[in-house]
Design brief:
Strand content: 5-15%
Distance between the termini: 60 Å
Structural class: alpha+beta
Strand order of the largest sheet: 1-4-5-8
Oligomer: single chain
Mean pLDDT: 95
Order of helices and strands: HHHHHEEEEEEEEHEEHHHH
Number of helices: 10
Radius of gyration: 21 Å
Low-confidence stretches: none
Length: 390
C-alpha cells in the first residue's frame, strides 16, 4: 500500500478571487506559520509580526467593507480562510477570529464618522483587537457584568475588570461592554477603548493547557477615561451589540474547530499509511480504517454546517440557531477527532514529537470560548421550544 500525503481540502468557492485568496492563505500558512508553530507554542510566544503580515495581506478585515479597508468577502469565504489558518496554528486562526469579533461592533453599529476615523486602522492598518465582555463573576451570565462606565462631561470613566480576554495586554484596541445604567441587560453600553489608555492594564497571562502562544489575561480598567465619541451605539444597547457579535463569532470558532480537526486527521492519515505493524501499514487494519472514515465524515458534516449558517448570514437571513448548532457540532467534532488522532498514533501521539497531542489540548478550549457548548444547547432549545419557564 503506497504512502498517501494529505491533500488540501477541496473547497467550493464562489469566485475566482476567493480561490486566489485561499491559495495566498495556504502559501502564508506553509511558509510562515507551520514551520514555527510547534516551537512558538511550546515557548508561549505570540507571533505579532505574523499578524502584521496578515494585516498587510488584507486578511484581518476580510468580511468588512472595502470602503474602510476591509476585503468585501462573504462570510462563506472568510470562514474558510479561518479554517486554513487554524489548521496551520490555532493561535493564528482564533486570533484573526477574535480580531474580527472585536471590530464588529464599530463596523455594524458605529456612526459614519466613527467608522471613517477608526476602521481603516483596525481592518488594515496593523492594529490588533480584543473583545471584553466576560468578567471574573459573569461569564455565561453576561447580563450580570459589573464593570461600570460613569458619565463625566463629554467623557466616560470606566472602572472594573474583564476576564479571559484573548490578546489581553497586547491589543491595540478593546471593544468593552460596561454598565452605564440599571442592573440587567438594558443597562450595558459598548465602548471602543485604545490599548494605551491611561489606567488600562493587564494581569499576567493565564497558564493554559493549550494555545500557550495566545495570551489570555484579565484586563483592568482603573478610571479609564474615554470620550463620548468612542461610545458605540446607543446607551443601553451594549448587550444587544455584544450578543449579535457573538452570533457571528461562533461561526468563527466553528471554522477554527474544523481546521484543527482537519489538521489532526491529516496527521493521523500520514502516520497510518507510513507506520507498519505485522508486515503491513496500520491503515490496512479495519479498526483504524473505520476510525479514519468516521473522523473524515464528522469533519465534512461540520464544514457543511458552518458553511450553511454562513450562507444564511450572507443572504441577510436569521442564522443564530444555525450558528449555535455549528459551534456545538464543530467543536465537539474537534475534540473527538483530535482524541482519535492521538489514539491512532499510539505512544507517539502522547509525545510532543508529533503535533497530535497539541491539537487535542487546543481543541478543548473551543468547546468553552464564546459561549460554552452547554450555552449553545440552551440557545438551540430556545429556538425550538421557546424560553425556559414560560
Amino acid at each position: 500500500m503506497p504512502d498517501r500525503a494529505p491533500q488540501p481540502v477541496d473547497r467550493q468557492l464562489p469566485t475566482e478571487e476567493a480561490r486566489d485568496l485561499i491559495s495566498l492563505v495556504r502559501d502564508i500558512a506553509q511558509q510562515e506559520i507551520v514551520p514555527k508553530a510547534a516551537e512558538e507554542e511550546d515557548a508561549g510566544r505570540f507571533p505579532r509580526e505574523l499578524f502584521t503580515l496578515l494585516s498587510r495581506s488584507g486578511l484581518l478585515g476580510l468580511p468588512y467593507d472595502s470602503e474602510y479597508g476591509g476585503g468585501d468577502q462573504p462570510y462563506e469565504v472568510y470562514l474558510q480562510v479561518l479554517e486554513e489558518l487554524a489548521a496551520a496554528r490555532l493561535t493564528v486562526g482564533l486570533g484573526v477570529s477574535v480580531h474580527s469579533l472585536a471590530s464588529y461592533a464599530l463596523a455594524a453599529y458605529g456612526t459614519k464618522e466613527q467608522q471613517v476615523e477608526h476602521l481603516p486602522a483596525m481592518l488594515g492598518g496593523g492594529m490588533l483587537g480584543a473583545y471584553c465582555l466576560s468578567e471574573p463573576h459573569s461569564g455565561s451570565d453576561a447580563a450580570a457584568l459589573r464593570t461600570k462606565a460613569v458619565r463625566d462631561g463629554d467623557a466616560w470613566v470606566i472602572t472594573g475588570t474583564k476576564a479571559w480576554i484573548t490578546h489581553g495586554g497586547i491589543a491595540d484596541f478593546y471593544t468593552v461592554m460596561a454598565r452605564t445604567g440599571e442592573e440587567g441587560p438594558r443597562g450595558i453600553t459598548a465602548f471602543l477603548v485604545p490599548g494605551d489608555a491611561p489606567g488600562l492594564s493587564a494581569a499576567q497571562p493565564e497558564k493554559k493547557m493549550g494555545m500557550k502562544g495566545s495570551p489570555t489575561a484579565q484586563v483592568h480598567f482603573d478610571g479609564v477615561r474615554v470620550l463620548d465619541d468612542r461610545r458605540i451605539g446607543e446607551e443601553g444597547q451594549g448587550l444587544t451589540i455584544a450578543l449579535t457579535a457573538l452570533e457571528s463569532g461562533r461561526l468563527g470558532i466553528a471554522a477554527c474547530a474544523i481546521g484543527v480537526a482537519q489538521a489532526a486527521l491529516d496527521e493521523a492519515l500520514s502516520y497510518a499509511t507510513e507506520r507498519r505493524q505485522f508486515g503491513k501499514p496500520i491503515a490496512d487494519f479495519q479498526g483504524l480504517r473505520f476510525m479514519l472514515a468516521d473522523m473524515a465524515t464528522q469533519i465534512e458534516a461540520g464544514r457543511a454546517l458552518y458553511l450553511a449558517a454562513a450562507r444564511l448570514r450572507d443572504a441577510g437571513r436569521p442564522f443564530a440557531r444555525q450558528a449555535a448548532m455549528a459551534k456545538l457540532h464543530c467543536t465537539d467534532t474537534a475534540m473527538r477527532v483530535t482524541t482519535d488522532a492521538v489514539q491512532i498514533l499510539g505512544g507517539y501521539g502522547y509525545t510532543a514529537d508529533f503535533p497530535a497531542e497539541r491539537y487535542m489540548r487546543e481543541a478543548k478550549v473551543l468547546q468553552i470560548v464564546e459561549g460554552t457548548n452547554q450555552i449553545q444547547r440552551m440557545v438551540i432549545a430556545r429556538h425550538l421550544v421557546g424560553p425556559e419557564g414560560r
